[in-house]
UniProtKB/TrEMBL annotation:
<keyword id="KW-0560">Oxidoreductase</keyword>
<dbReference type="GO" id="GO:0051537">
    <property type="term" value="F:2 iron, 2 sulfur cluster binding"/>
</dbReference>
<dbReference type="InterPro" id="IPR017941">
    <property type="entry name" value="Rieske_2Fe-2S"/>
</dbReference>
<feature type="domain" description="Rieske">
    <location>
        <begin position="45"/>
        <end position="151"/>
    </location>
</feature>
<dbReference type="InterPro" id="IPR001663">
    <property type="entry name" value="Rng_hydr_dOase-A"/>
</dbReference>
<keyword id="KW-0001">2Fe-2S</keyword>
<dbReference type="GO" id="GO:0005506">
    <property type="term" value="F:iron ion binding"/>
</dbReference>
<dbReference type="GO" id="GO:0051213">
    <property type="term" value="F:dioxygenase activity"/>
</dbReference>
<dbReference type="Pfam" id="PF00355">
    <property type="entry name" value="Rieske"/>
</dbReference>
<keyword id="KW-0408">Iron</keyword>
<keyword id="KW-0223">Dioxygenase</keyword>
<protein>
    <submittedName>
        <fullName>Aromatic ring-hydroxylating dioxygenase subunit alpha</fullName>
    </submittedName>
</protein>
<dbReference type="InterPro" id="IPR015879">
    <property type="entry name" value="Ring_hydroxy_dOase_asu_C_dom"/>
</dbReference>
<dbReference type="Pfam" id="PF00848">
    <property type="entry name" value="Ring_hydroxyl_A"/>
</dbReference>
<keyword id="KW-0411">Iron-sulfur</keyword>
<dbReference type="InterPro" id="IPR036922">
    <property type="entry name" value="Rieske_2Fe-2S_sf"/>
</dbReference>
<keyword id="KW-0479">Metal-binding</keyword>
Amino acid sequence: MLQTFASSISSLLDARADGHSLPAGLYTRQDVFEADMDVFFRKHWICIGLECDVPEPGDATVVDIGTSSLIILRDDDAAIRVVRNVCRHRGARILDPGPTVVSKLVCPYHQWTYELSGELAYAPHMGADFDKSCKSLKPVAFRLIGGLIYACLSDDPPEDIDFLAEVMAGRLAPYDIANARIAHQADVIEEGNWKLTIENNRECYHCSANHPELCVSFIDLDFGFDPDSLSPEDREVAREHEALYARRTENWEAEGYPSKAVERLSDCVTNFRTQRLIISGAGESQTPDATSASSKLLGHMTRKDTGDTHLWGHNSWNHFMGDHAVIAIVIPLSADKTLVRTKWLVHKDAVEGVDYDFDKLTSVWLATTDQDAELVARSHAGVKDPAYVPGPYSRFSETNLDKFASWYIDRMRANGY
């Protein structure tokens, strides 16, 4: 039965044409969704949260990934831990989804009680010969990368997470995300497959027609263009922009801000891209007027003009600016529903109404996320239609989608599909 299941998915993988979107079944079928959860959300590293989700000892938050439930917590020694939200007695959930504060982890069912380290402290009526030492909560492999928490639910996590950590350590250090404060969190459920969510984020072909708020600070030339379609005047503008990028990147790096593009989008396990992008207009932040939302800058930042350090992976995208950061985490809920969890970070001491304006801080990405949700729903409705035929990606504006689709196919095959 398992062989037939894998073979059926394999035929869909084989049907994908280079340079084209995926066959419909890879977006819509339940068996593909289950395979995706196994391959990409259990066997690969995924971003699950932030160190500042649990700023104090005793702070905990629960994140559900498919049928798995994880507790992120800060223990009595102020260390981050990630453990399975499964009691070692009869498997009951210990904590409900979302944030909480605890002194110990107590299972509501039979009161088995665990230290914040995960060790079983108390198991009533189990007898004098009961060995508590082998009943600790199961730990989850995780890495702290610049204040982001990456986890892998496999017992054999990919080793190439080390390269991501190496690349991002210096880039994220000035923002001190581990000690930032979450000013706002918004959960949006998109009516579409998680791959459509990621594809939509990895191109800005659609931005000028759909994201007026974001386009105040985004530069459309950054996201690809057909040079033959430009007038001589516009081609000159594009050349000047490329020259500006080269100068700005060189200057930023000379000043100690790593900026060059680093890509691991194919022929790899852990998929990511990072680059410091120029912010348009006033050049400071992704706000309605591209000026900073917070007068108290993030972490150790002393400048507002250091652009937007972006980082994306296969279940997240992030924008780090001088005054604030925007973190988005993607969690598939079903073949046709995807949770996008967005967090806005400010300096840990920033005070709303004094150091920053809430609407200015959040309005651009609140609007953009709602607009993207509508686009993803449109896309998913279309791929379910019998008339859908995989279409060609733009070789100017959608090359990263082609790389993502190819990486997806490769990773599925590497895991036996």
